[in-house]
Amino acid sequence: MSHNTFGHLFRVTTWGESHGPALGCVVDGCPPGIRFTHAEIQALMDKRKPGQSRFVTQRREDDVVKLLSGVMTDEDGETMISTGTPISMLIENTDQRSKDYGEIARSYRPGHADYAYDVKYGIRDYRGGGRSSARETAARVAAGALARKVVPGLKVRGALIQIGKHKINRANWDWDQVDQNPFFCPDAAMVPVWEDYLDQIRKAGSSIGAVVEVVAEGVPAGIGAPIYAKLDQDIASLLMSINAVKGVEIGDGFASAELSGEENADEMRMGNDGKPIFLSNHSGGILGGIATGEPVVARFAIKPTSSILSERQSIDADGRNVDVRTKGRHDPCVGIRAVPIGEAMIACAIADHYLRDRAQTGGRS
Amino acid sequence: MSHNTFGHLFRVTTWGESHGPALGCVVDGCPPGIRFTHAEIQALMDKRKPGQSRFVTQRREDDVVKLLSGVMTDEDGETMISTGTPISMLIENTDQRSKDYGEIARSYRPGHADYAYDVKYGIRDYRGGGRSSARETAARVAAGALARKVVPGLKVRGALIQIGKHKINRANWDWDQVDQNPFFCPDAAMVPVWEDYLDQIRKAGSSIGAVVEVVAEGVPAGIGAPIYAKLDQDIASLLMSINAVKGVEIGDGFASAELSGEENADEMRMGNDGKPIFLSNHSGGILGGIATGEPVVARFAIKPTSSILSERQSIDADGRNVDVRTKGRHDPCVGIRAVPIGEAMIACAIADHYLRDRAQTGGRS
Amino acid sequence: MSHNTFGHLFRVTTWGESHGPALGCVVDGCPPGIRFTHAEIQALMDKRKPGQSRFVTQRREDDVVKLLSGVMTDEDGETMISTGTPISMLIENTDQRSKDYGEIARSYRPGHADYAYDVKYGIRDYRGGGRSSARETAARVAAGALARKVVPGLKVRGALIQIGKHKINRANWDWDQVDQNPFFCPDAAMVPVWEDYLDQIRKAGSSIGAVVEVVAEGVPAGIGAPIYAKLDQDIASLLMSINAVKGVEIGDGFASAELSGEENADEMRMGNDGKPIFLSNHSGGILGGIATGEPVVARFAIKPTSSILSERQSIDADGRNVDVRTKGRHDPCVGIRAVPIGEAMIACAIADHYLRDRAQTGGRS
Amino acid sequence: MSHNTFGHLFRVTTWGESHGPALGCVVDGCPPGIRFTHAEIQALMDKRKPGQSRFVTQRREDDVVKLLSGVMTDEDGETMISTGTPISMLIENTDQRSKDYGEIARSYRPGHADYAYDVKYGIRDYRGGGRSSARETAARVAAGALARKVVPGLKVRGALIQIGKHKINRANWDWDQVDQNPFFCPDAAMVPVWEDYLDQIRKAGSSIGAVVEVVAEGVPAGIGAPIYAKLDQDIASLLMSINAVKGVEIGDGFASAELSGEENADEMRMGNDGKPIFLSNHSGGILGGIATGEPVVARFAIKPTSSILSERQSIDADGRNVDVRTKGRHDPCVGIRAVPIGEAMIACAIADHYLRDRAQTGGRS
Fold first, then answer.
1. B·C CB contacts under 8 A
2. Complete DSSP assignment for B153-198
3. How many other C-beta atoms lie within 10 A of the C-beta of residue A204?
4. Which of C32, C90, C131 minimises the CB distance to B85?
5. How many Å apart are CA B282 and CA B267, to the nearest integer?
6. What protein family does this chain belong to (chains A, B, C, D) (predicted)?
7. Which CATH number characterizes residue D41's domain?
8. pLDDT tens-digit profile of A147-185?
9. Which end of chain B has fewer beta carbons closer than 10 Å to its terminal beta carbon, N or C?
10. Looking at the 3D structure of chain B, how many domains does it have?
11. What's the predicted TM-score (pTM) here?
12. CA–CA distance from D26 to each of A13, A22, C352, D140 (Å)?
């Protein structure tokens, strides 16, 4: 709805700038009785946290989530139970390096929102990107951690499948590999390639784009809606809302353009257990906007980090030509840390539709 | 918000099934004083209308839009002026061929929403796809015709750039060609290739996917918002809401994954007229979710029509294995008629953000 | 959300002017499988219909509701079943008396929206009040007819309890009387008093205010929410949205101001059947914004019709002083026809909260 | 929209329980460039703060608002400037008296939300009323402080006009008196009467209802909308959302029921300065849902505090009959502290409509 809120029934409002005292979110509409631990949230936060390897920004943030409302602690002193009231979560900013922002306060960094932002608002918190900083996504991951709990049996996993021109070999896909390397890479053979490649880019002060794939299993068949609340529509919307994302695909995505109707049809048969089986999943688990029960598969492309050491031509707020190079701590490939964010967005979309389906159809699906 | 409404301030609610008496939309939030003629709406409707060539469905619909509210007629007896109240538009269904739906009433057509729809609602208007029919998009085009008028100077144009493996040569791009052939193809050299190719597909009772590109010029710099109301996010959402769309790109899209930060930077300089100039437009006119003033460029992939003559394996509502072939009048490439629909969706997204910007910043951009 | 839509999950969008070809509404979010007949809707429409007695406007409208989408007809050929898609309902305007609007097109009728409307929009359909006409409420009654069906066991009834200074004797309250007189009056003894009184007012070309009370039984305990979606809040909002309403009360309403905490407490005991019993209902069936299961009781005050025959001082659109008297067909007491409208609004609010509760808590209440 | 958010373009989301670590709100949609000081917010917070006199609860809270995002500090080091991003405000709970809640954790206090809440959610933070505590209204006052700044020239003032049967004499109305007594009473002669009366009630451990009136001056003519976004509708909604409110009136309110059309007409004349003048304001500044430019006048009735020392019959969560008396620190007349809350709600409604008008009509009004 509004500019800093997403979701209709599982509603998340985020707030905060990169260099303010804190950032956070309010999750409204979480059903009562959802059980989770602080450790479960924190484990997901840690996947996105900066400073985890030499391939991501060296900013150091603990990203500890404080829960301020909407939960009671169970008798074990550890499990939290949602009460149905809004859950406010706060994350302090601790590593706001004091530096001279004089230059970029006035100059527009190419590829960043600086120019467009100034045109819109006429005032801009330039420190660390302000509201446009990717630090905002910490709040998304926290909200996504709750969303995963709302839908029984939901499992959402993401992986990085391409950096620059280097794509994984899908035949090597192994989910167990994803947490074994700093790239969330499911193809063990690709890891050393990416390491070498990113080291070069990092040392050159350059950056590179990437592609992330997220797969959600256990999505109840029937959630979604046929027209303007297609499940894939809301997934596309939320993935595109992640900083630096420029493309989104569901199922076969752009490859569908080259398929015939015969090839693209996901044929069905009744299984031995009396349940319908899909013989393929070109649709990525969604037909006509509604989940089929097959895994939901989405991909998104992330452009290279705009903060690079090479000088680029730009202008400043006074309308003068300037050359800008962006010093500081940056991710050479923001796609890496986009993996847990993509997971969070998809978990939130599914949780929202799960509740919406319960409203309209009584959750018959 | 709800399942059949999109937009926040330029709000469109559509209704209607393929085989009911009519379909239509209500456009709420249109500013007062917007002037347009019925002929202007109808010209856009005609672009989407079935039966225009042998490459689209042979269903015959006039698709005449009746305006039922929200406008007054000017003294010339022709120009309509919006009054600021909801504009209700109605399109009658006239060519609902009476046929026996007995078979598909129970069988789930592969690739269609039939199965997912039944799981969700437990009741389904199977005639012509019911609510999931692409006839719903007629209402979108009517709404889009108004949206184009809301933003002064806005120009939104689309083209088909790929059918199957056959992609246009972008060096040949000529907007004037687009209305000269039945494909909305901007590359004259590609037209005969597509004709032959689609004739084969049509005769085989098969179908094929496609890619559409839409370019919006005159988008005011500053519209959009940095977090969950990114202009590209809402464009992605609305494009993905079109039937059969499986992928969406903004600017360089998935190709961004292969770019370095140096390549991707849209550098700027002050122009001779004292206005900022972008030296490239990798971003597709949107940075950090906010319009830069450059042309907004979006692409979307459409899967092949699921209705094909070849038998495909499926199940029916009683859980029996069946083989389904879909007779009747179908588009061999739904991508063709998706061009005006994509234009409409982008016009609506831009109109909505134009009004939202006016609310928050007073339209300073 | 938007200006012509209400409800969050049972969403109603109305459109249409008094003197256009038609008016109507789109009901979005109605669950699938709701069964109703056209006659049931029409019976409620007839309660609001003009021309039913000499005490209401003599405009003659059939107010026949056409259902254009969202339903299938059952095998009996009569019962309609909602499919879960938007239900579009249309009511034609048939008695638009052709008259010279020259005068009031420019003059602002005191007590009407004319002046404020022109300030806002700068353009106004002055014929019959345009969008501000009470004819818009026909669409509300149609939507309310569906809303009543959404909540199993819901019974919503209204009555007129005061005209001018003449209040009913609550000791005489008899619901069976309500349909026996042209005033929806539950007190048989008051009917002749009101007849004489309104005849005088009518003959004098004057008008008078009134108070309506609506009681909803069968409201599931637990619907509503503690903060900004209080059930009474949404009832107040929708009642205040009815033309000419100037006050709303829930339960004891303004009389609560004179009560002590001891008097106001709705004490409870367990009933013999093991269910909780409230010993009184000062709260009007809502505590802390949530339904208690007791009857929901709401009242609203309607100001006198602003259209009167006596001249009143005003100005015109050119800033000149003018004296205005409003000829034509008017209700001497708009409160009468407000009864079915109030019922409809409360039915819609309850249906909406019923679905919202189902979303958040699984409908455990 | 959602259950803990209100407003469409000036959107406020509140969160927090009475006995959690903190409560707060996120204000989204505030225009950029709004200037205010922390002291201005705090002055309004202090009006609502507990412990200010013997006539309100003795809970001691500083209610200091921390601004966590969405503002930059001007060069004077004091003035804050909104940046257009969400403004997060946090208020710590400091006086959460540790006591044994064992009893009321299980028993339902008559007149409170306890029973309805348990039916709905099945889990309840019983400490101090949890989410239903009036402490939530602190966040509303903070949001209202910003809302007042959004509309240039807006002045919103409230007063208590009735406690129990003791109504002020409107002839004595003096706004300067309002801040001179602990009741926000505009009638100096009534102050000693209320003092004696409330002392009795307080000593008896009883409570009493009240009526508040709020007047907003400087409301731009033209804001509001004719159908479901009537300005009075949204005011009614927000006033009814305040804990314990049972009735709302605009302008003459329920007294309108006794007026004739002649009496109720707010006649107009052109003033000497060439601007329209209303000769009366029965409408309370709103006609047909749209502001006329006259002062907006609203009243609301607050029921007596449900927490009283006398035993009252009730049941507990185990379905047993119990007798409940509510010890602790309570307001004998919650109506007193409702004055600044009512002001905040009306300021927020006006700010929201001001922005909505700017969107649809370009703020021409």
1. 144
2. T-EEEEEEEEETTEE--GGG--GGGGGGSTT--S-GGGHHHHHHHH
3. 15
4. C131
5. 10
6. Belongs to the chorismate synthase family.
7. 3.60.150.10
8. 999 999 999 999 999 999 999 999 999 999 999 999 999
9. C
10. 1
11. 0.96
12. 8, 13, 26, 10
